């Protein structure tokens, strides 16, 4: 990307050249020299800045959904927000998590591969304490989970994937499903050590306890839908078909709407004097013959023609023709 100089920088550069502080020939030599950029093949760049921005937007929504979910479940103050979205080798992520932590391994069909939601023990045990009637405090020493604790944590964290599904709806319809709950990261091998992952770090605060929740998504899992993470996808609206139940509900509401329907017998023009002098028994001559069909308007648009008559002792109109949208004969 070419750097654009501001006006102040241009003035300073011209002043330096004029005073002799800088040599134009040396600048030309520097420009002709090849610029070398260090590239670490162990930290392959698979996600562009555009992809990182999209992942950030998606998981900011995820953080809001989680805040609402955990606040309702724990009945206490919970605040979750995205701290960073980085790309790094899977091995580096595994080495950074504690030896004893909560690893929620899950799949998200139709994407292929496994992902992991890592919850710091401080956060996980504060949730557990709150669910079991405590104040939401985490223990000073973290021990292995009992069978009952494992079941409780599986239940609460398996429901967090509903929030993840909702957050991803604008990009791709995924069906996250809990596969297993692990506590030792050394036994968790999702992908090869050098495989690039996207690491979404969420700062979590429950009452007075704080910690991190990390979402690890391997690049190989997201690779089939990488084009959907571009800015173009976010701004180009796609037409989505409505579900049958939504269409049925909409049709039911529309069918109950009331519309003004008028059958016009004809029109006539009167002067103001004639109008003022009208009295009971006077006859107004219309511009239509009794043998012509009546114009029946819905609102101010001509929709039907028909013949006047009676039905069960009441005035009625029999429909003789229906005008479709765009046909000749529509009223203004």
UniProtKB/TrEMBL annotation:
Domain Flagellar motor switch protein FliN-like C-terminal: 254-323
Main location: other
Cell membrane in keyword set: yes
Protein's cellular compartments: Bacterial flagellum basal body; Cell membrane
Keyword Cell membrane: yes
CDD domains reported in the protein's UniProt record: FliM
Keywords attached to this entry: Bacterial flagellum, Cell membrane, Cell projection, Chemotaxis, Cilium, Flagellar rotation, Flagellum, Membrane
Membrane topology: Peripheral membrane protein
InterPro entries recorded: CheC-like_sf, Flag_FliM, FliN-like_C, SpoA-like_sf
Domain of life: Bacteria
Pfam families given in the database record: FliM (PF02154), FliMN_C (PF01052)
The family this protein is said to belong to: Belongs to the FliM family.
Protein name: Flagellar motor switch protein FliM
Gene: fliM
């Amino acid at each position: 990307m070419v750097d654009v100089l501001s006006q102040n920088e241009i003035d300073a550069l011209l002043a330096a050249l004029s005073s002799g502080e800088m040599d134009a020939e040396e600048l030309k030599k520097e420009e002709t020299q090849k610029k070398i950029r260090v590239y670490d093949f162990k930290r392959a760049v698979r996600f562009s800045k555009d992809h990182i921005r999209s992942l950030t937007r998606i998981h900011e929504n995820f953080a809001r959904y989680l805040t609402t979910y955990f606040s309702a479940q724990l009945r206490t103050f919970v605040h979750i927000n995205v701290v960073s979205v980085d790309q790094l080798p899977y091995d580096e992520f595994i080495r950074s998590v504690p030896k004893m932590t909560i690893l929620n391994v899950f799949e998200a069909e139709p994407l292929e591969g496994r992902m992991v939601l890592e919850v710091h023990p401080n956060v996980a045990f504060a949730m557990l304490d709150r669910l079991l009637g405590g104040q939401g405090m985490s223990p000073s020493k973290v021990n292995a989970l009992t069978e009952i604790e494992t079941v409780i944590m599986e239940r609460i964290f398996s429901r967090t994937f509903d929030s993840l599904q909702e957050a991803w709806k604008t990009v791709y319809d995924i069906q996250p499903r809990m596969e297993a709950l692990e506590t030792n990261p050394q036994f968790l091998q999702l992908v090869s050590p050098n495989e690039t992952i996207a690491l979404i770090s969420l700062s979590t605060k429950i009452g007075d306890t704080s910690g991190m929740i990390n979402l690890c998504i391997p690049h190989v899992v997201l690779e089939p839908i990488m084009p959907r993470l571009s800015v173009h996808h976010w701004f180009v609206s796609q037409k989505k078909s409505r579900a049958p139940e939504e269409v049925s509900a909409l049709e039911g509401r529309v069918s109950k709407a009331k519309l003004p329907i008028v059958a016009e017998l004809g029109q006539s023009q009167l002067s103001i004097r004639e109008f003022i002098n009208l009295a009971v028994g006077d006859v107004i001559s219309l511009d239509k013959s009794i043998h012509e069909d009546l114009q029946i308007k819905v609102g101010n648009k001509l929709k039907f023609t028909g013949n006047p008559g009676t039905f069960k002792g009441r005035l009625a109109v029999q429909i003789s023709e229906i005008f479709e949208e765009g046909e000749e004969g529509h009223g203004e």
